[in-house]
Specification:
By secondary structure, this protein is an alpha+beta fold. The chain has a single domain, classed as 2-Layer Sandwich (Ribosomal Protein S8, Chain: A, domain 1), CATH 3.30.1370. Helix content is 28%, strand content 42%. It has two helices and five strands. Strands 1-5-4-3-2 form a five-stranded antiparallel beta sheet. A hairpin with a 2-residue loop joins strand 3 and strand 4. The longest helix is centred in the last third of the chain and has 15 residues. The chain is globular. The model has no long low-confidence stretch (mean pLDDT 96).
């Protein structure tokens, strides 16, 4: 089994959960940690916090755990998930 924790900033819990569902997972829990289970993998939204860069500039930060049966499955899961969280500035 392989696992890694990543931090995402500026993306809501609702969107992060929706991305797991779009990858084929089913939501298992309705409170922290939010657990999503897919075939051969699972994801957990562990916590949410707010960080301040200045007195007025604040960003949500969310800890997410990815777990897969093996390293290759974990790499693929993270690649697919990161594709969904990509934000293009303009």
């Amino acid at each position: 089994m392989a696992a890694i924790d990543l931090e995402f900033r500026g993306i809501s819990i609702e969107h992060l959960g929706m991305y797991f569902k779009e990858l084929g997972a089913k939501q298992i829990t309705d409170s922290f940690p939010f657990v999503y289970e897919g075939e051969g993998w699972s994801g957990q939204i562990l916590s949410e916090a707010e960080i301040s860069f200045t007195a007025t500039f604040k960003v949500i930060t969310i800890q997410v755990r990815f777990i897969a049966d093996d390293e290759d499955g974990l790499k693929l899961l993270i690649k697919n998930y990161r594709y969904k969280t990509t934000r293009i500035g303009g």
